[in-house]
Amino acid sequence: MPEPYILVLYYSRHGATERMARKVAQGVEQVPGVRALLRTVAGISNAWEDRGDDIPDDGPLYCSQDDLAQCAGLVMGSPTRFGNMAAELKYFLDSTSPLWMSGALIDKPAAVFTSTSSLHGGQETTLLSMALPLLHHGMVWAGLSYGERGLTQTSSGGTPYGASHHAGVGNDRALDELESELCVAQGKRIAKLALKLARETKN
User: Fold this and answer.
1) CA distances from 200 to 7, 66, 81 (A)
2) Residues 6, 111 contacting (CB under 8 angstroms)
3) Cβ distance 37 to 10 under 8 Å?
4) The pTM is what?
5) What pLDDT, on the 0 to 100 scale, is given for residue 44?
6) 147: domain CATH number?
7) Which range marks the domain in which residue 70 is found?
């Protein structure tokens, strides 16, 4: 039987959300018995229906419906767009009705993360906007617990709703130590929950 994986799905235009995704994946990989699968989504033009190429020039592949259906858990990230998830990620999620109809994601753990250019640029509302479709899919949404020191010590990103990062107006502010720790912790938490839920399902 193939090793179960946690899908780390994200959209990143300037690289900050991708850097967070890679930290989340590091956290997943620290849990024995599960692996991380990094996937992104295609860009869309102002014509809305006009997407990019089927295969990206570099970086992770675009996510398929099957990648999502077969995951043991999901950690999903997006930059903030006016306090909401990016249209590119919403476009992909809007195409997942077949998975909703089949119940493919029911009882699988999920988490969300985001990056903003301003410190109070809608981090928490963006995280909540990403959680809504996952709840409709029947997923088990897990945030970050206050057992993580970063939640009470951070002066930039980090919320109980999910990991976050203040990238700066020029998107040139690197992930700081606490933001990185919270991304890793989020990956580890979903990986552990996925294994526990899988065992419960078998019993």
Assistant:
1) 20, 23, 38
2) no
3) no
4) 0.93
5) 83
6) 3.40.50.360
7) 5-202
